[in-house]
């Protein structure tokens, strides 16, 4: 499959994913390899300018309902929508199976935790949309990031039926997201 | 003074009275590129009828659970004709559908002025807000509400999925028996006032020849069945009509749609609208899933309302014209 830049719809690379379902194993083995049309230098520069923008905040960034009911996103909140999509993609990855898949429906809230160390730190409440049940699943996600490093994601999703927790700590490299290096 | 001057004065006075009370002055100045409230859509309907007497009428086909009137616009130039049904907004969070329905209503009127031949053979029936209680709830309380707002006995959860409540495969796999579920089928088929109103209307009309129920999102055009993997008897014809309809849609802005039966294209779903209408003998029964494919999903930006409606209308028209040209 070809990947497109979410914002510009420009083709940015190709990804090949293989999924092997094995008898007597609860989860399939998944391998994803992507090429990126962007040069590694450009990726590093883009990541770092996002990082600098977030790091220079003296008041924590906050936002709610992204997009709002009318599908509108304030331009200043777009990077947070994109980061929430990134973080949610990990959650959706963990929760998906051959019977159920997800979309991120909306960011209900985002709040930055200002840190004295090098990381940037965000707290999200997002809504996942689950197919085929049609359910809306609220998830609380914490992310911590430094450019060039894997996005660290901790999450807790609730639903009427069950609650699950998970984290990206100890996630095997296979299938994990190193966001600068696709 | 000549009587035509007096009539003009009376018409003008009536329009001014209507405009003074109504949030909608005229369908000409109505903003189609924004999402509207229930009151605004109902006022739009009244304005459209007032501006087009003899062409557009408003029928009340029932009342919602919470007592809101349920309206269908009828576009007709003669009596006792076969009809084509379109509904939008059965799932309240799918806002681009009600918004498209409003645009379709205006489109039908505008096109009729240029080319009256379509309505010469067939009436069009358009239910814009099929689930008014749910729609009001998406404005006041929960933008992601899908179902009706009926009270479920013995449960703290409200609402029934109006697209699992029809008497087609009711009770089978593809719907939930849990009132808290988004796909709760309800205690029995047609338990929902919103569904029963349409069922009663369709049965008493007796001459509906095509039925399009509009949802979002996923960019799909679907035909029966959802409750069973058995192929519909008219599968070949429905499939080629779907292909032609999707081509007409894509021709407008290049938007890509997939088509097929509900069960093979989306998932198994029982108690669905078009399975029931098809089994009633309404051969040209289709469901659309409009834009997008998940980037914005239910919260589609308002600037996509008009493009969505503009590309969808030729696709719906393909089906209407086919029904007109293949009477049965």
Q: Would you mind describing this structure in some detail?
A:
The complex is a heterodimer of chains A (182) and B (328). By secondary structure, chain A is an alpha+beta fold. Chain A contains two helices and nine strands. Chain A has helices at 40-55, 78-95; strands at 2-4, 11-20, 29-34, 62-66, 101-113, 120-131, 136-145, 152-158, 163-167. The radius of gyration of chain A is 17 Å and the shape is globular. The relative contact order of chain A is 0.15. Mean pLDDT of chain A is 83; it is low at 161-165 and 169-182. Chain B is α/β, with parallel strands linked by helices and 328 residues long. Helices cover 40% and strands 15% of the residues of chain B. Chain B has helices spanning 3-21, 38-51, 95-114, 117-121, 132-140, 193-205, 235-253, 262-265, 273-279, 305-325, and strands spanning 56-63, 69-75, 83-88, 123-127, 208-216, 220-223, 258-261, 284-290. In chain B, strands 1-2-4-3-5-8-6-7 form an eight-stranded mixed sheet, sandwiched between helices. In chain B, strand 1 and strand 2 (69-75) form a beta hairpin. The chains are: A alpha+beta (182), B alpha/beta (328). The interface between A and B is medium-sized, with 19 and 29 residues.
Strand order, main sheet of chain A: write it out: 4-5-6-7-8-9
Radius of gyration of chain B: 19 Å
Order of helices and strands of chain B: HHEEEHHEHHEEHEHHEH
- Based on secondary structure, the structural category of chain B is alpha/beta
Overall average residue pLDDT of chain B: 96
Sheet/helix structural class of chain A: alpha+beta
Give the fraction of residues assigned to helices of chain B.
25-40%
Low-pLDDT residue spans of chain B: none
Q: Radius of gyration of chain A in whole Å, from Cα?
A: 17 Å
Give the termini separation of chain B. Answer: 53 Å
Shape of chain B: globular
Assess the beta-strand content of chain B as a share of residues: 15-25%
- Largest beta-sheet characterization of chain B: 8 strands, mixed
